[in-house]
Amino acid sequence: MEPPRCEPKGAAMASDFYQYDDRRDPKWGLPGDVRENWNNPTIATFFADIMTPGLSQDEIDMGRAMFEGAFESMLSGMTMPPELEAAGEWAEYWAPGCVEEPDAPELRLHVRLPKGEHEGKRPCIMYYFAAGMGGKPDYFDTEIAQYSADLGAVVIAPQYRAHPEVKQPAQLNDLHAAYQWAIDHADELNIDPDCIVLSGYSIGAMMALGLAFRLKKYGITPRGLSIVAPPVDDMANGPSSRISFASENLGCEERVITWHSFFGAINVARPAVSPEIIPNHCTVDDLRGFPPVFMHIMESDPNRDEDIEFCSKLLAAGVMTSMHLWPGTNHATFYSGPMYELKAKFYAEVENDIKTLIENDCRRPWSA
């Protein structure tokens, strides 16, 4: 049976452009471990169970409970290595709303504090988890603890508000609030407020870019961004926008569902929506003076072509930009299934990106 078309509601595109590009066959994956872990229909099912338009609140709650239960079950058999656990400690803080939404509910911050001696102020990593329709940053404790231990960094992971009940810019406001809280509490945390790196995957990566646009408005330039597979555009202009997994993985169908859930149907495929919300709505001039961006892109990902276009705009604006396109991968390749050689290489490269941004001020204020 053919998967549904991937045309976003309201997009002014010829319908024959949206003949799907079926990537379900593992032959599209890099031979070896990637092919063996190519599809994950459970992930796509959770997207439909929580974000399909028209669901009742009870149905959303049930889908979210199943999503979080699956995550908890997956993590129950995993333990953090004792030496990594001992390298830092966990703390929980609460931040007030940001200047653009001061009446927002308090925001929970999941924080990893490294142990040991450190000369001077520590760097800070803002970690934005993916999906956003449920879950919590605690699910990514091993990754967070590894960054903290290896880089001597304080890692702050905000638990932003979930969609579809709450739409953007509420989540962006939460990230803004967390960033401002870090600056306000820099002395208490012993962090350098001028060395804050934004990191995230998927929607978390998209919001990292959105926050950089927001902060630019206030004259603040983070140290840089290390991001993975951000859905930067909702116009579905590139050939990769047709990549489908027919609900066996994350493809164009799930991307369209996410846009409606996260932005609201009225805001989908509207160029006037701010780059704070949909980053690739920006112009090259909007990007002048933008912080450096190190981006990882997956070959069989509907986001691929828009991500490449966004990086091209960054380069045209004179922003230091690194773009690594991983062949034979899809949107979920490095975030599902067991650890294997290529996956370990990917995480090492992401960590090295963050290390580069911490150790070198790659910002180019003269390009603004």
UniProtKB/TrEMBL annotation:
SUPFAM superfamilies: alpha/beta-Hydrolases. The keyword Hydrolase applies. Signal peptide: none annotated. InterPro entries: AB_hydrolase_3, AB_hydrolase_fold, GDXG_lipolytic_enzyme. Residues 134-333 form the Alpha/beta hydrolase fold-3 domain. Keywords: Hydrolase. It comes from the Bacteria. GO terms for molecular function: hydrolase activity. This is Alpha/beta fold hydrolase. The lineage of its organism: Bacteria, Bacillati, Actinomycetota, Coriobacteriia, Eggerthellales.
